[in-house]
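Researcher: I'm preparing a figure for a lab meeting and need a structural model of a single chain. I don't have an experimental structure, so a prediction will have to do for now. The sequence is pasted below. Please return the structure as C-alpha cells so I can convert it later.
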Amino acid sequence: MAVVVFECPIDDETLHTIRELRELRLEVLRRQVSEIDDVMDKLELQGAVIEEEKDSYREVILSDLSDQCRLLESRLTLTETVYYDELELYIEIMSER
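Model: Understood. Here is the structure written out cell by cell.
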C-alpha cells in the first residue's frame, strides 16, 4: 500500500475531535468483539450469513475486528498524526451537522 505523508496544520480542537472519534470507534469495535455471537446472530437474521457458515465467518470477522482494534490502539498513541480515513469520516460527520 502506498503511503503519502505531508505536513498540514490542524487545529487542536480538530485533533481532539479526531481522537474522540478514534476512542468511540475503538469502543464500538471492542463491544462487537465481546458480543461476537450476538453480531453473528444479527448477520444471520439480516441474511448476510447462513447457519452453516456462521462458525467459519465468525472467526474471520473476529480476526478482522481484532485487527481494527489494534490499528486504532496504535493510532491513539500518534496524537499528531491523522489518517485519510479519519479525515474522511470527520468531514462526513461535520457535513451532516
